[in-house]
Structures are given as structure tokens and as C-alpha cells.
């Protein structure tokens, strides 16, 4: 017995030792070093001070060193995310994850993202190249000095990160450009609907302010001191992007001579994208001006021959091999015409995609200039160098000024809108360059003291050029303005309440219309009567614990689909432009002839159908419905969540969400506020910023998801600036 006991004890000891070794190898070794000294190829010593949220505050004596340290610190926390970003943009995910990444890779290859990044690099001014090179050196120093100590994802997937290149930073920037670009799917959809539908009705469905429902939205506003208790401006920003684990953004402070800036950066890219320095603050929303057009090409894909202005041209042919883990490489053949790569086909119709990002013009990186700007003039000068993505940038400064500047590369279209695929052979529908910066919308110190951007069309009616885009409905912008005007003065921290607002004026209008229709008709349909009773006293709040929002959202979907089917039969399921909220509302307010013989019948029938669908989804008792079950979020780490039995540790959710697409707190299962930022120009240390999950991507870090609870409950954290409470200091010694 004693031998057996000794053997069992020895086995237990071995298992414990193996477990401890595993914990050391996978948990302790990859964690971020936050204190001590390490040698580094910097000109002067650099301090990386971490606060209680793990956010790095970098103090250096020159710009090169501070950007080197930014690359190093970001790689400490987010190297695998950075690697997957550059792979996503370049079409190289399949190399590490296998066949599941092939479709994403094919799309990136057809967009020629790698080639576009090389074009950007070729046209990059020397001074901008030097800034990006400093950042790349910092990333590479981390890779080289921590070989074998990288985060567990590299070990699990069995590969090593290659050195970081300037073109990799450009790929990460280009991926964000891609995220905020284009509505080519809507152009193709409109063309299909026009082909077999009622032209007037289809055009009604796609007004000039066309939007794409899956596209990210954003909110930003600036109010002057006349509206604040401090007498100084306040700026707020909550850009909406796809949910992700880790967060899209990485918080950081950069301080060097002539530079002291803090806020949100994009992993893989130097500088701060959203934030403030000692003098100004800025926030960003997607402009949603259309910078992509489909061109129908008369092309023979067997030979690459195509027609243009009566002449025969030869498309450039590229054959690319996509490495696929565990399988043979996949081949992608790309033909590129004068307009761009053949990107979309419907039957024998082949279309090239023209994209402003791929234009052979100088590409510049003005973010450090923006981070250094000290007033409105310098701010605009920096943005004049921005070639993309197309954005609205809201502004506030310590001198009491507020502003709004549109920036980016906006195509000039003369005589056409670009809202449907264009004739690629005739040559009459070509871009005429880009809108000069001085002609882009710019607003400074309006009399109202309020500026609001929520992806609505911000171009004035007398704009001298064709405005085409996938702009949002005005519901969010109107609600923000209504909240800001609801009281004379606001405390800066109260902007969080507005960012958390979930009143859906669009759905409240539909609910009221449906209830009135049922009452007017004296409807005998029990489903319609039950629906009217549920919506009768609803306050329009998209609260996750309530039943009425379930029905209101389903009612909208039924109205939208049936409306689109009237314009073009069998297309209703695909008609999902964000502007549809405004289109449905306009149709019900105007009730034009030719659509529905009896609008009240349409409303009552749609309401009954929505009730029936809700019962199928959540049960026969409508009192037990919960909107949160319809708006349910699960945040999954793409690799760690695959470990059996560890979902609750690595993931977040499923959790019910408040909000809707047209509420200020715009949420869905796929998209939500990627951060919340409030800048107090009266006291920078009273500013606030909150990421979705946490600063670190290391699954065993205490900062992996330590910001989530505040985010979910509508709270935030101080954005430490002048008064940094250090929890550790790492010094980079030359």
C-alpha cells in the first residue's frame, strides 16, 4: 500500500509542478512588464508610467523616442491584435486560422489592400515616414526582446509574429478606412430593385441621404461655455463600431517637447486619434460621404480585354496565393481596370470598384500635427493633410471656442450621383478629382453654442458639388439637440447621461401611428388589439427589461419590409438602409397615393404580424417579453473562448442591452459605442474616457476586462493627464 500511496503522491506532485510550470509559461511570462529598467535603442531615457487601469503615460525628451515607446507599450498589451489587424487588411488570416479565414482573405485580396498600402508608402512624405518608422522600431524591439514570451494566442496557433513594417501600420490605418467607407452593396441593391420594380417608388426608398444599416455610426457634440456650469466648452464623443474583444481602441498619453496628448489610439498606428492635449480636444464621427463607386465593365475575364471610350484596353492581371493553415494554398485572380479591381459580379455583369483610398495621390499622416495643434487654425491645418478616412471632427478649446470640420478625400461627381453602378465603358461618369479642403463644411462658434454630429448629412443646402453618401437619419442628432436644450446649464460629467439615452423617437412615432390606426378602425383582429394595448402607454424608451420595445422594433421591421416589397417585389428582406427609419416615417406622414390603398389597414396588419412573430420568439404572454432577449450581446475572445469550460472567464455575456439603432446609445448585437469620451476644457483632469472592456488583450491580465462594468452601467473613469497616479514605472534606458 505504501508503494501505491507514494506513487500516487508523486503523480500528484508532478501534476502540480506541471500546472505551476504551465501557469508560469502561459500566464506569468507573457504579462506586461510595468516596472524596472530595460535597455532600448532610444536617444534618451523614456519613462512608461502605468496608472490603475494599466494605461501607459509616456514621458520622453523627443518625438522619436515617445513614438518608439508608444509602439513598444502597445505591443506589450496588444501585439496579437495588431498582428491580426494587419493580416485582416492584407488578406492573410487563413495562414494562421485555416479555411475559416478564406472569405475574409479573398475580399481583402480583391480590394488589393496590400497593394494600396504599398502605394501609400510610396507617396508618404519623408517626415511622416520617419514618425511611422520610430513607432515600428518600438514594436520590433518588443518582439525581439520578448521572443517566446508573447501572448498565448501565438502559442496556441503555433506561429511567431514577423517584424513590424511601416506598411503594416498603413495596413492598420487602411482597415479603419475600409470600415468607414462605402455603400457599394446598397448601390447594387438599388440597381436590382430598379430593374424589376417601380422606379418612382424605388427612388423614394433611396433618398440622397442614403445609409447602410450595418455601417457603424457615431455621436459627437461640442457645447460652448454658455451651456455649461464651468463657463468653458465641453466635448463628448462615442464612436460606434463593431463589438470586439479586445477593444478597438488603446488609451495612451504621449508627452515630449511640444507634445502632450492623451486619449484613444488605434493599435498598430502611432499618435492619438480621439482625445485632447493641453489646449484643444477633438472627437470623430464617420462622415459617410460615398467614396466608392461600382463601374459596370465590358470585360472578358478570360483575357482581361475591356472596352473604354470605344477603345480596347487590357486589365492588369494578378494571381495571388493565399496560404491556408492545414491545407493547400487558395488562388485568387484579380483583374484591375482603369476604375479599379473587378470586385462584384452578378451573373455575366462584372463590376470594378473605384475607391478614394486607392487613388494614386500623395498620402500623408497628419496625426502628430493634430496632436500638437493649439488652436482652431492649427487644427484645420493638420486636418487639411488628412487623405482618409472621411470624417467629421468636433472641436473645443480652453479659450472657449467650439468647431466642426469635415476632412478627408471626397470624390467630385459631375452630372451623376453614384447611387447605382455606373457605365464603365462610356467614360462619361468619371470622378473629377476631389473636393478641395477649403470647400469642405466647416463651422466655428455658432450662435446656438451647440454643434452635433451623429452621421447625419452635415453639408449645407447650397453646397456647390454633388453630395452623395450613406448618411444616417436625423433621429439621433435631433435627440441629442433636444437633450442639450432641455436645460440651461450642464455639468461636464452629465454628458454621460446623454450618451446613455435610449429614447427611440422613430419607434415611438410608429407605435403611436399603429395604436391610432387600430382605434380608428375598431379592429377585430385580436393580435392587432393586443399589440395596440401593449404600445398604448409606451414611453419610447428602449429598455432591456420592458416588453413594448420588442413589439415596436418588430413593427418597424414589418413596415420596412412590406414597404420595400411594394416598390420592388421580393426585395424587402434585403432592404435595410439606415435611412429607412426616415423613409417609413415620411411615408406615414405624407401617405401618398399609389403605395397603400388604406394606410391604417397596413399599420394594423403589420402590428398584428409583429405580435404574432413576437409570440413565436418569446412566448404567448406578451407581459413576459423582454427587449434584452432581442438585443443580446456576447463578447468573445476569438481564440481563448474556444477553450472548453472557460467561456465565463474569457468572454462577456450573453447580456441584454438597452438601446436601438436610432437611439443616442445606438446598440445592436453587432455594433455599439466603442468608447465614451467627455473632455472638460475647464479642467483636463476632470475629463473621462471608458473603453468597452479593458486596456490589455492578455487574457490573464487584471486589465483584460476591468472597464466593462463601468461601461455597461453608463459610468466612466477619469482620463488622467496632469495628475497621473502611478502603479508602476518602466524606464527604457539607451
UniProtKB/TrEMBL annotation:
Residues at the catalytic site: 218 (nucleophile)
Entries under SUPFAM superfamilies matching the protein: N-terminal nucleophile aminohydrolases (Ntn hydrolases)
GO molecular function: hydrolase activity, acting on carbon-nitrogen (but not peptide) bonds, in linear amides; metal ion binding
Reported cofactor(s): Ca(2+)
TM regions (residue ranges): 7-28
Pfam families, alphabetized: Penicil_amidase
Binding-site residues, Ca(2+): 187, 290, 293
Keywords: Calcium, Hydrolase, Membrane, Metal-binding, Transmembrane, Transmembrane helix, Zymogen
GO BP terms: antibiotic biosynthetic process
Co-factor: note: Binds 1 Ca(2+) ion per dimer.
Family classification: Belongs to the peptidase S45 family.
Protein's recorded name: Penicillin acylase family protein
Organism in which the protein naturally occurs: Paludibaculum fermentans
Organism placement in taxonomy: Bacteria, Pseudomonadati, Acidobacteriota, Terriglobia, Bryobacterales
